[in-house]
Amino acid sequence: MEKRLDEANNMLDLMVSKGCNPDCVTYNTIINGYCKAKRVEDGLKLFRKMSIREVVTYNTLVQGFSQAGKVEVAQETFEEMVSQGVHPDNVTYNILVDGLCENGKLDKAIQIFEDLQMSKMELDIVIYNIIIHGMCNGSKVDDAWNLFSSLPHKGVKADVKTYTIMIGGLCKKGSLSEADMLFKKMGEDGIAPNECTYNTIIRAHLGEEMKRCGFSADASTMKMVIDMLSNGRLDKSFLSMLS
DNA sequence: CTAGGGTTAG
């Protein structure tokens, strides 16, 4: 967790030298550490050396490759898992579908999600949250809304994340009044908003308020930003807010 | 008498 992977590896060698054999949890802890440290290739090397093939390790690797932006390799790892006879579980599909969404492959994510719905796997709210989030970020807020609205028929109960994701999607689309209505409905449905929900809706309202007050990136604003960037009062990451 | 490792929102 502290990204001190080489020390962790030395510890692994030490335990082996003392006759204490690592098991799948030991290995997975280190493989996950490699992935979090953006060293998924090193994680894969360790994986190739071990003989245990279980679902959690594959899940770790699929996520590692996705988060390293190598979603094709993540998909290949998933295929390998299936061909090795290791059965994917809910977490596998959550990781795979989220990885596809985060790497610009929303259509593929939706396709897998639809296959899952036809399968006899029991889907819980997590996969719905992931796909609704993917749709909202992929400019398919209307599709997200339709899916969100279908949850009661499917016997799946929306949680605070579902509402927050959907409210965020409506805000992004510019439908602030619909977002407000959903925020109200969420309370009526007995789901309490949390800090994420409030941040989402407050940010959208502030953005509207700024527009109404005539704030925009005009010449004088740009000059102010450029000045503040040059004297260091404003961090460069601020610019990402503007796009 | 068998822990501990992998998943979603701004």
Summarize the structure.
This protein has 13 helices and no strands.
Strand content: under 5%
Structural class estimated from helices and strands: mainly alpha
Main beta-sheet strand count, sense and barrel state: none
CATH superfamily of the largest domain: Tetratricopeptide repeat domain
Helical proportion, percent range: 55-70%
Tally of separate helices: 13
> Class of the largest domain in CATH?
Mainly Alpha
Q: What is the rounded distance between the termini?
A: 33 Å
Strand tally = 0
Low-confidence stretches: none
Q: What Rg, in angstroms, do the CA atoms define?
A: 22 Å
Report the CATH architecture of the largest domain. Alpha Horseshoe
CATH topology of the largest domain: Serine Threonine Protein Phosphatase 5, Tetratricopeptide repeat
What is the average per-residue confidence, as pLDDT, rounded to a whole number? 91
Anisotropy-based shape: globular
Order of helical and strand elements: HHHHHHHHHHHHH
What is the total domain count?
A: 2
PPR repeats: 23-53, 54-88, 89-123, 124-158, 159-193
Keywords: Repeat
Protein name: Pentatricopeptide repeat-containing protein
Family: Belongs to the PPR family. P subfamily.
